[in-house]
Amino acid sequence: MRHNEQMLFGIPRPLLFFGAMALVLWTVPQGHAARRDVINIAGMLPPLQFRMREASTRQPVSAATFRGKVVMLYFGYTNCPDVCPDTLYKIHRIFEHLGRDAGRTVFLFVTVDPHRDRLAGLKKYLALFDPRFQGLRGNPNQLYSLARRYRVVFSVHRSTDMLRYRVTHSSSIYVFGPHGNARYLIARLGVTQHPNYDLIVNKLKSLVNASPRPSFFTWLAARG
Known about the structure:
Elements: E1 7-8, E2 11-12, H1 13-26, E3 38-40, E4 51-54, E5 60-62, E6 70-76, H2 83-98, E7 105-111, H3 119-127, E8 134-137, H4 140-149, E9 154-157, E10 166-169, E11 173-176, E12 182-186, H5 197-210, H6 216-223
């Protein structure tokens, strides 16, 4: 399947881009859009829902697999030259600052370029930044369904000439609470030199500690 670089879901990319930006800016008070690192999106987006394959285990996983944990959801690709590596490095630093709470936090990297990003390569790529990161690869229907659900903008222009193979994607990170509800949008992590790590870590810790640890039976059901 070829994907037109100017259209996505039958809608011109510029309209989708500005629509996504409007969603972000709508949640930011006037005068503070440039400095808001973490945006509260509670009640604005639907609960986490997807079904894809996880790179390390090669097994199907869904949102239920991660119930009881705080989930950070990011869309990128392994050949990304700048924003993705920078974002992954910063997420690694955030995990280090989380300490013990990192064990109840999951970072999911969804590839928007499954044509090139096979499971083995996705696993090796993420391990370069942090072995705790988990890669997700879906078929086109699964990927587009997830992107539409969270108004994610991306496009892939495939070519046999790697110099003409172009991928674009939004760089926001979606944060879901232990029950799968959308809570925060981290909008600037990959494009700012000095992110507010303390703020981001405190928000994640508040989600981790706001909900009791899942029981053994809840954990067992999620694994099934």
